[in-house]
Design a protein that fits this description.
alpha/beta; 3-stranded antiparallel beta sheet; about 40% helix; elongated
């Protein structure tokens, strides 16, 4: 399985509409630092503006970027319109009129400034790629957009906006396949993904979903990774115990994705985590507790999930002197317990 993750700029524009949207993106980046070997970001910037009267988009190459001009606005930009100049007369005219109902979308998206602000631009796992579609891929893009045109209705916005967002989704998907990585996209695509996946997109990687669900189940024992300072995230990335914990999450991810999957059910994570707990606790528990372990955890299907997981972690704490703190994934949970 590929251990990298791709952040396409065209399919993450909502994070750059206003500053209030940035923390969610930063959380995803922090989690990805922990769960993937390399993070691949589109280089340069993507300027997208439009309303029901027209759309303007342009890719800005990295050599033309000025980070000082890439501040994300406090509030969404309003009043988009586009003027042009007639080459013959030199007169200015309104190419895309301003929306009469005030509905417009205007954003300049770039990962460069955010990564610099996080202070991780020089980390060896951060990669920026400026990649343009080949002529063959442009034809494939046109075919994909045409064949899935009926799915535009699952994107909120006017018809022009729907068309461009659908095109950006397929553009990102093509590059994701070229990088041979899963991709991270924003909430503009939530409804589209729910419907289009059952027809043409297979889920091949759910490790962040596994991380979030396991953190939810163990929220009494391990920290909220997305809230940690970036320095702590970098330390954890290289921590031996966390690596063991991460490997266990990847085992669960692999179990979930070994067969073709069009829709993801987070509840499927729970029995897999319980199974791993049972396996580990039986190995480390003192012999006189083995019966208790099986009795407490073996009925996981008939009691609330938090019950057997809490019991399992509790038993591990009672047996922590038997843990190899250089090898055991449960040691990470116990060592970082917030109890």
């Amino acid at each position: 399985m590929n251990q990298d993750i791709y952040f396409p700029i065209r399919s993450n524009i909502s994070f750059f509409v206003q500053k209030a949207n940035q923390p969610s993106l930063m959380s995803r980046i922090k989690q990805s630092i922990l769960m993937y070997n390399n993070l691949i970001f589109d280089d340069g910037a993507y300027d997208f503006s439009g309303n029901e009267n027209g759309v303007f988009e342009v890719n800005i190459p990295p050599e033309k970027l000025k980070l000082s001009t890439l501040d994300v606005p406090t509030k969404p930009r309003t009043g988009f319109r586009l003027n042009a100049i007639d080459e013959k007369t030199g007169q200015s005219f309104n190419l895309i009129p301003q929306s009469e109902n005030g509905n417009n979308y205007s954003v300049i998206a770039s990962f460069q400034k955010l990564i610099n602000d996080l202070g991780i631009q020089d980390e060896n796992f951060i990669h920026f790629e400026w990649t343009e579609l080949t002529p063959i891929n442009k034809k494939i893009l046109d075919q994909m957009v045409k064949s899935t045109g009926n799915y535009k209705k699952y994107i909120r916005g006017n018809p022009l906006f729907q068309e461009y967002i659908l095109k950006n989704f397929h553009h990102s998907l093509i590059l994701s396949k070229a990088f041979n990585t899963p991709m991270m996209i924003d909430s503009l695509y939530d409804n589209l993904l729910t419907n289009i996946m059952s027809k043409m997109v297979n889920i091949s990687d759910v490790r962040l979903e596994v991380l979030n669900r396991v953190c939810e189940l163990l929220n009494f024992d391990i920290p909220d990774f997305s809230s940690l300072e970036i320095e702590k995230i970098l330390d954890l990335r290289n921590d031996k115990l966390f690596i063991e914990f991460r490997n266990k999450l990847l085992d669960i991810n692999n179990c979930l994705t070994q067969n073709e999957m069009n829709q993801f059910d987070p509840s499927k994570i729970d029995p897999l985590l319980i199974r791993e707990l049972i396996k580990e606790i039986v190995e480390i528990a003192p012999s006189n507790k083995k019966l208790l372990v099986k009795g407490s955890l073996g009925v996981a299907g008939s009691i609330p999930v938090f019950g057997p997981i809490a019991t399992g972690v509790g038993l591990a704490k009672d047996s922590k002197e038997l843990l190899d703190f250089n090898k055991n994934w449960l040691a990470f949970i116990i060592k970082n317990s917030q109890l």
